[in-house]
């Protein structure tokens, strides 16, 4: 087949395919143009998920008649003063947006520059242009795109349902709204109720307000400020507490010089910073803004400009990890407010009202005698007189002698920590986690604070304490070991034995010494003294399972932290162990001194705080 020159229309459509993938791509390009034009208000309207209509109006600089005629040509742009592509300071610079849209759809453009007496309009129908005509419009620009892919019907079958395309448009507007909190955005259409993001004040407070509008009140209530800078690179933004997570990474928003990007390097840095807090199947919520010299980042590596390339990759990654870790450590003792909200929501259905069978109506209201949660009813209509706190059911709240041995490690911790906290309950109320009042089901500690109460998961809390102590010991002088009087023989698969023996040196750093004991077993000879009496066999089996999932490219430090996490879980006080009141208070005080004590090693909250005002609302006192 001979070589031939393609027609201009075909060239434009091929180029359009690189830029315009779906209606959301049109919205992205047009909103970015509006932002580059200095707009302070942008209105977006769509129909049919954007396939039938996309209209973007702004109050920006507008265009003159001459600019408008040139703007719909390929590679025509007002965003490059010269030919230097190494310093891009605008969102759009390729000069392909309007020309690409006009090549595959019906495009109409109206704009008025402040220097012009009236507005001008121009139309492009699948690559066929009409000359500028006078139009009625205030200052700014209005762009309408109708019948997307009208000129290339084959592309239509690749579009998804209108609802799905509308959600993609919404996500584009959300990202651009987060990048520019000083600009007001409105998104409307037949598929949804109008969404408005009002312009926010400058500074961190305004940015957090916009993030709260976009990501929800839970994010703003549980966000910690992130800020760091080095060698001309600055990191700012907000990150959610580790106890507020999602099942996917869609809640991670990253911006480079106010440009929304989806960069694997940045996402990997976020994951590394949270690795000490979250399990593998949970993902954090973050909104980070990276600012650096335009010459230090290449934004021209992809036609859609969603990927970037840094000159100094290591610096950017290290700074993100450092900034996030510092912010999380600063607020490490906080637990997400969603825990308390969820607890209150769980209580409300039981007190919801007349729909319940236990609601007696009238002035009597709730009848506790008919409650399905009331213990002790042995027959219909039977009403037993209460016997006070001498009932057997109240034994769950006893704080007498421990029911079982706590183990040498925990006993040593409690003995060392309890002495300084032998204070009255009134004095203990002044502590952040308050004074212990009771232990429920030998699992949860209930403590009273000045303005509410706290429920602590004793296993999760002590797990974090042991974990942090293991890390601190490893950094200083190594973990002290205790020799077992009789080595414990643990039978495993041969593959698991081989994996364990390859990691002997790493395990010894945490005080765990194992030797080969034949083809299908290992001998556990020493364990960390910090853990006390533990199920050594269970620990070794768990470690063998974790080792099978290790990625060899995972940094050594991270692998060691996984070992420490497993050990901490096995060495922590278990659910079902009864604690004395003094021991519970000692555990609370230890939590207050321990970094990252708001969540355990698996990302679960260690405590839930209930405000007195919320509790009073349950009982109609507010």
CATH C-level class of the largest domain: Alpha Beta
Head-to-tail CA distance between termini: 83 Å
From the 3D structure, determine the CATH topology of the largest domain.
Answer: Ribosomal Protein S8, Chain: A, domain 1
The averaged pLDDT comes out at 78
Beta-strand percentage? 15-25%
Measured as a percent range, the helix fraction is 25-40%
Can you walk me through this structure?
It is a single chain. It is elongated, with a radius of gyration of 31 Å. It has 19 helices and 25 strands. A hairpin with a 2-residue loop joins strand 4 and strand 5. It has three domains: 183 residues, 2-Layer Sandwich (Heat Shock Protein 90); 127 residues, 2-Layer Sandwich (Ribosomal Protein S5, domain 2), CATH 3.30.230; 246 residues, MutL, C-terminal domain, regulatory subdomain (Ribosomal Protein S8, Chain: A, domain 1). Helix 8 runs parallel beside helix 9, helix 11 crosses helix 18 and helix 14 packs across helix 16. The protein starts with 7 loop residues before the first helix and ends with a helix. About 10% of the residues have low confidence. It is of the alpha+beta class and 622 residues long.
């Amino acid at each position: 087949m001979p070589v031939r020159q393609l027609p201009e229309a075909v060239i434009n459509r091929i180029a359009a395919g690189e830029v315009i993938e779906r209606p959301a791509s049109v919205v992205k390009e047009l909103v970015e143009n509006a932002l580059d034009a200095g707009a302070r208000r942008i209105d977006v309207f769509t129909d049919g998920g954007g396939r039938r209509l996309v209209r973007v109006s702004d109050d920006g600089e507008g265009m003159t008649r001459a600019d408008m005629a040139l703007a719909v040509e390929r590679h025509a742009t007002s965003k490059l003063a010269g030919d230097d592509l190494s310093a891009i300071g605008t969102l759009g610079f390729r000069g392909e947006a309007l020309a690409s849209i006009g090549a595959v759809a019906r495009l109409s453009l109206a704009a008025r520059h402040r220097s012009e007496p009236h507005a001008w309009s121009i139309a492009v129908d699948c690559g066929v242009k009409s000359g500028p005509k006078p139009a009625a419009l205030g200052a700014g620009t209005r762009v309408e795109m109708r019948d997307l892919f009208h000129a290339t019907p084959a592309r239509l079958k690749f579009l998804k349902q209108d609802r799905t395309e509308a959600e993609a448009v919404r996500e584009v507007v959300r990202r651009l709204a987060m990048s520019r909190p000083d600009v007001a955005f409105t998104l409307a259409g037949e598929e949804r109720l109008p969404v408005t993001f009002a312009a926010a004040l400058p500074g961190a407070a305004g940015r957090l307000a916009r993030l709260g509008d976009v990501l929800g009140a839970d994010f703003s209530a549980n966000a910690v400020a992130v800020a760091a800078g080095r060698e001309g690179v600055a990191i700012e933004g907000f990150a959610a507490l580790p106890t507020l997570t999602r099942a996917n990474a869609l809640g991670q928003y990253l911006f480079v010089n106010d440009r929304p990007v989806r960069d694997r390097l940045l996402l990997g840095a976020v994951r590394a910073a949270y690795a000490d807090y979250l399990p593998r199947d949970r993902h954090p919520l973050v909104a980070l803004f990276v600012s650096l010299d335009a010459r230090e980042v290449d934004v021209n590596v992809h036609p859609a400009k969603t990927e970037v390339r840094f000159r100094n990759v290591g610096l950017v990654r290290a700074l993100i990890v450092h900034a996030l870790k510092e912010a999380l450590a600063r607020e490490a003792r906080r637990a997400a407010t969603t825990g308390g909200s969820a607890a209150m929501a769980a209580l409300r259905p039981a007190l919801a009202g007349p729909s319940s069978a236990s609601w007696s109506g009238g002035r009597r209201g709730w009848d506790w005698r008919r409650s399905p949660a009331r213990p002790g009813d042995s027959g219909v209509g039977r009403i037993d007189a209460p016997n006070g706190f001498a009932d057997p059911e109240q034994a769950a709240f006893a704080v007498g002698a421990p029911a079982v041995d706590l183990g040498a490690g925990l006993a040593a911790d409690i003995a060392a920590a309890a002495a300084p906290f032998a204070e009255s309950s009134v004095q203990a109320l002044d502590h952040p986690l308050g004074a212990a009042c009771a232990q429920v089901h030998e699992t949860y500690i209930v403590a009273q604070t000045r303005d509410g109460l706290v429920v602590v998961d004793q296993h999760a809390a002590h797990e974090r304490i042991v974990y942090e102590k293991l890390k601190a010991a490893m950094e200083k002088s190594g973990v002290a070991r205790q020799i077992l009087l009789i080595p414990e023989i643990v039978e495993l698969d041969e593959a698991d034995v081989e994996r364990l023996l390859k990691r002997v040196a790493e395990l010894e750093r945490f005080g765990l010494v194992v030797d080969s004991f034949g083809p299908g077993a290992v001998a556990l000879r020493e364990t960390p003294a910090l853990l006390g009496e533990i199920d050594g066999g269970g620990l070794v089996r768990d470690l063998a399972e974790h080792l099978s999932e290790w990625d060899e490219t995972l940094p050594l430090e991270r692998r060691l932290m996984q070992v420490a996490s497993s050990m901490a879980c096995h060495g922590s006080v278990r659910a079902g162990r009864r604690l004395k009141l003094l021991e519970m208070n000692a555990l609370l005080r230890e939590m207050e001194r321990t970094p990252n004590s708001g969540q355990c090693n698996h990302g679960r909250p260690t405590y839930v705080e209930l405000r007195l005002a919320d509790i009073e609302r349950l009982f109609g006192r507010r």
